[in-house]
Design a protein that fits this description.
By secondary structure, the chain is α+β, with helices and mostly antiparallel strands. Helices cover 35% and strands 20% of the residues. The strands form three sheets. Strands 1-2-3-6-9-10-11 form a seven-stranded antiparallel beta sheet, sandwiched between helices. It has a two-stranded antiparallel sheet with strand order 4-5. A hairpin with a 4-residue loop joins strand 1 and strand 2. It is globular, with a radius of gyration of 31 Å. 33% of the residues are buried.
């Protein structure tokens, strides 16, 4: 009798142990199934792409990459420049100008022009190239837009932000347009600006200095306002010391894209980009 009882008790214990083992095996399977979304590579890649997209469209002022000419992108505190080692000038210089950036205590009188040592010797302009050239060291991103920060002001005097510019144009029309842009930034809160040189494709290219810095035939500037209903406007000034009114210099962004081969404001949605780049209405500003 006792022997039979022990046998029944042993069978019951073995059955209980077997049931526990089955339950223990089932729990990890369920846990793994629930945790799978946290290790889903596709979900992680999609999130990464989404973040990258946000980062990409942040810089509305930056044009599309250039493939038909030398281009080295140089990011400075107050602007970004696309540098061309062949012309020794920027292809374009772009910056986001806010109302706050139109004010500041940092003055240009304390600064001097200097070489950009991130560019190899022989591929960059120097101060000597401009000496006795009869051309000004013309800012693309102006010192007046960089008074908000000492480093930004200093970097605006790098030769990778400079082009040979007629003195009359530099002193009058180009300076007037820079002042107008600051007024627009104060009015609208912020604007995006891109400017740079235009070269005549026919005839010999005029240069200055030992490093043969190209002399532009004209300069462009395109401006985007994203406050309220987006709008854009463009200007082209001949690199000459003759009077040129804003109305004469007025162009659509599409026209300037056709002349320069540069795709401006690619971060905008296609519908908005097509609409505003076809406009050239100074009264809308």
């Amino acid at each position: 009798m006792k022997k039979t009882s022990y046998l029944w008790l042993l069978c019951a214990l073995m059955a209980l142990l077997s049931a526990c083992r089955k339950a223990q095996v089932a729990v990890p399977d369920a846990a793994v199934k629930e945790s799978q979304p946290f290790f889903d590579n596709k979900a992680a890649e999609a999130k990464k792409a989404e973040v990258q997209k946000v980062k990409t469209i942040t810089f509305y002022e930056q044009p599309a990459p250039l493939t038909d000419r030398p281009e080295q992108i140089l990011k400075r505190k107050g602007y970004t420049t696309s540098y061309n080692s062949k012309s020794k000038n920027p292809n374009w210089v772009a910056w986001h100008l806010t109302k706050a950036h139109t004010y500041g205590d940092n003055q240009r009188k304390n600064e001097v022009f200097f070489e950009d040592e991130t560019i190899e010797r022989g591929q960059r302009a120097t101060d000597n190239d401009y000496y006795n050239s009869r051309y000004d060291r013309g800012h693309m991103c102006p010192a007046g837009d960089n008074k908000w920060d000492a480093q930004a002001m200093r970097e605006s005097f790098l030769f990778t932000n400079i082009c040979p510019q007629n003195h009359g144009l530099n002193k009058y029309e180009w300076n007037d347009l820079e002042i107008q842009c600051r007024d627009w930034a104060r009015e609208y809160g912020a604007i995006d600006i891109v400017c740079g040189p235009i070269y005549n494709t026919t005839g010999d290219q005029k240069t200055i200095g030992r490093n043969k810095v190209w002399v532009p035939d004209a300069f462009f500037k395109v401006i985007l306002c994203r406050q309220g209903k987006p709008k854009a406007i463009g200007f082209i000034y001949r690199n000459e010391g003759v009077k040129q009114t804003k109305a004469e210099a007025l162009r659509s962004v599409d026209e300037i894209e056709a002349l320069t081969g540069i795709d401006f404001f690619p971060a905008l949605d296609d519908e908005t980009e097509e609409r505003i780049e076809a406009e050239s209405d100074l009264k809308a500003w």
